[in-house]
C-alpha cells in the first residue's frame, strides 16, 4: 500500500504543470445517450490537456433511498462505462467517491463556512424537494457543499458544467473565496470549462426537456446498454410533428432533436443532415437515427461486456485509483485542518 502511494505521489508531482479538471456522474440509474454525447464522449479527449479526476459520485446518490445491491452494481457499471467510453484509468483518475473519506470530512468543514440563505436559493434543492416530497433530507439541502468539497479537494482549475450545474460551481467559488479570505490561499478557485460543447440531447417524448435517466416514460430515453432492437423502437416512437417538412429549426423541436442525435453520431452538421434527408419522410429519418445510435453504442456495449468478465481488472482499477485520489485529496484536507485549528494525529 505504502509503495503504491509513493508511486502515485511521483506521478502527481510529474503532472504538476498540468491544470486539473474535475467531473463526475451519479452512481444511480442507467446512463443515457444524452450523458454520453453531452459529456462522457468529450471527456476522452481531455487527458492530454489536463490532469483529470472523474468520480463515480456514490455519496451524492444517497439523498435518494437506494437498494444496496443494485446501488453497488450501478457504481461498478458506471466505472466500466467510463473505461469502455475510452477514458484510460492509467492517464486519468477514475475513482469511487465513497472510497475517499476526505470528501465527507471536508464537506462538514465547508458546511461551517456556508450560509443557509445560499443553500435555500439553490434551484436543484427546490426541484428535487418537489419530486421527492416524502424524503426532503438534510443531505439534499447540503448537496452543493459536498459538491464543493469534491471539486476543491483536488485543487481543481476547471470544471465542465452545463447550464443546470453552473449555480453549483458558483457556490463552490463563493465558499472557496470565503475560506481563502480568512486563511490565505488554501483552495484553487475553479473556473467553468469552456471547450468543445457536447450535443444537448432532449427527451424523445418531450423535446422541451433534457433526456434523463430518471424519466418515468421508458420511451423517452435511450440508455447506453439498451439492445439494438430497443434503440430502434424508441427512435421510431420519437415525437416529431405534423408538418412533414425536413428542416432543422426550433419550431420543430422533435425533428431537431433527432437531427442533433444523428449529427453527433455520424459527425455531420445539421445542414448536411437536412440535405441528406431532403425529400424523405420522418419515418426514414427515425430509422437512420436508430441505426446511427446502434453503430455508436455497440462497440461501447461490447467493451462493457468484456470488462464484466474481468473482475480482477476492475477491482485493481478501483483500488489503485482510490489510492491516488486518497493521496491527492488528503494533501488538501491536511492543510485545511491545520488552518482551522484541528489536531491531526500522525
Verbal overview:
The chain is mainly alpha-helical. The protein has two domains: 2-198 and 311-340, Rossmann fold, CATH 3.40.50; 228-305, Tyrosyl-Transfer RNA Synthetase. It is 54% helix and 7% strand. The chain has helices at residues 2-14, 33-43, 68-84, 102-111, 116-120, 123-131, 138-153, 166-183, 228-236, 253-266, 270-276, 282-309, 311-340, and strands at 19-26, 50-57, 93-96, 158-159, 191-192. The chain has a three-stranded parallel β-sheet. A two-stranded parallel ribbon has the order 4-5. β4 (158-159), α8 (166-183) and β5 (191-192) form a beta-alpha-beta unit. α4 crosses α7 (138-153), α4 (102-111) packs parallel to α13 (311-340) and α9 (228-236) packs antiparallel against α12 (282-309). The longest helix has 30 residues, at 311-340. The model is unreliable at 1-14 (pLDDT under 50).
Major sheet strand order: 1-2-3
CATH topology of the largest domain: Rossmann fold
Shape: globular
Would you tell me the structural class of the helices and strands? mainly alpha
Helix content: 40-55%
Tell me, what is the CATH class of the largest domain? Answer: Alpha Beta
CATH architecture of the largest domain: 3-Layer(aba) Sandwich
The count of strands amounts to 5
Mean pLDDT: 90
Helical stretch tally: 13
Give a quick account of the main beta sheet: strands, pairing sense, barrel closure: 3 strands, parallel
CATH superfamily of the largest domain: HUPs
Distance from first to last alpha carbon: 17 Å
Amino acid at each position: 500500500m505504502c509503495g503504491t502511494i509513493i508511486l502515485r505521489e511521483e506521478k502527481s508531482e510529474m503532472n504538476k504543470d498540468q491544470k486539473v479538471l474535475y467531473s463526475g456522474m451519479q452512481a444511480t440509474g442507467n446512463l443515457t445517450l444524452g450523458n454520453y454525447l453531452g459529456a462522457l464522449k468529450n471527456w476522452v479527449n481531455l487527458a492530454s490537456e489536463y490532469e483529470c479526476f472523474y468520480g463515480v459520485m456514490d455519496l451524492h446518490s444517497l439523498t435518494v433511498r437506494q437498494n444496496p445491491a443494485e446501488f453497488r452494481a450501478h457504481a461498478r457499471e458506471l466505472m466500466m462505462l467510463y473505461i469502455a467510453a475510452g477514458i484510460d484509468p492509467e492517464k486519468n483518475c477514475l475513482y469511487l467517491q465513497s472510497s475517499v473519506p476526505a470528501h465527507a470530512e471536508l464537506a462538514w468543514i465547508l458546511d461551517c463556512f456556508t450560509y443557509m440563505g445560499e443553500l435555500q436559493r439553490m434551484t436543484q434543492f427546490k426541484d428535487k424537494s418537489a419530486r421527492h416530497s416524502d424524503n426532503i433530507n438534510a443531505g439534499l439541502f447540503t448537496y452543493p457543499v459536498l459538491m464543493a468539497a469534491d471539486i476543491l479537494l483536488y485543487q481543481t482549475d476547471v470544471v465542465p458544467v452545463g447550464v443546470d450545474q453552473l449555480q453549483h460551481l458558483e457556490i463552490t467559488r463563493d465558499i472557496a473565496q470565503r475560506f481563502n479570505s480568512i486563511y490565505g490561499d488554501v483552495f484553487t478557485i475553479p473556473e467553468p470549462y469552456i471547450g468543445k460543447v457536447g450535443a444537448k440531447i432532449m427527451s424523445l417524448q418531450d423535446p422541451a426537456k433534457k433526456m434523463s435517466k430518471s424519466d418515468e416514460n421508458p420511451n423517452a430515453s435511450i440508455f447506453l446498454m439498451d439492445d439494438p432492437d430497443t434503440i430502434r423502437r424508441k427512435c421510431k416512437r420519437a415525437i416529431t410533428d405534423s408538418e412533414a417538412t425536413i428542416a432543422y429549426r426550433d419550431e420543430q423541436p422533435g425533428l431537431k432533436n433527432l437531427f442533433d442525435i444523428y449529427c453527433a453520431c455520424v459527425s455531420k452538421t445539421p445542414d448536411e443532415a437536412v440535405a441528406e434527408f431532403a425529400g424523405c419522410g420522418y419515418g426514414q429519418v427515425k430509422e437512420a437515427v436508430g441505426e446511427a445510435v446502434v453503430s455508436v453504442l455497440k462497440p461501447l456495449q461490447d467493451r462493457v461486456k468484456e470488462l464484466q468478465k474481468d473482475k480482477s481488472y476492475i477491482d485493481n482499477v478501483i483500488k489503485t485509483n482510490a489510492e491516488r485520489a486518497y493521496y491527492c485529496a488528503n494533501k488538501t484536507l491536511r492543510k485545511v485542518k491545520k488552518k482551522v485549528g484541528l489536531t491531526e494525529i500522525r
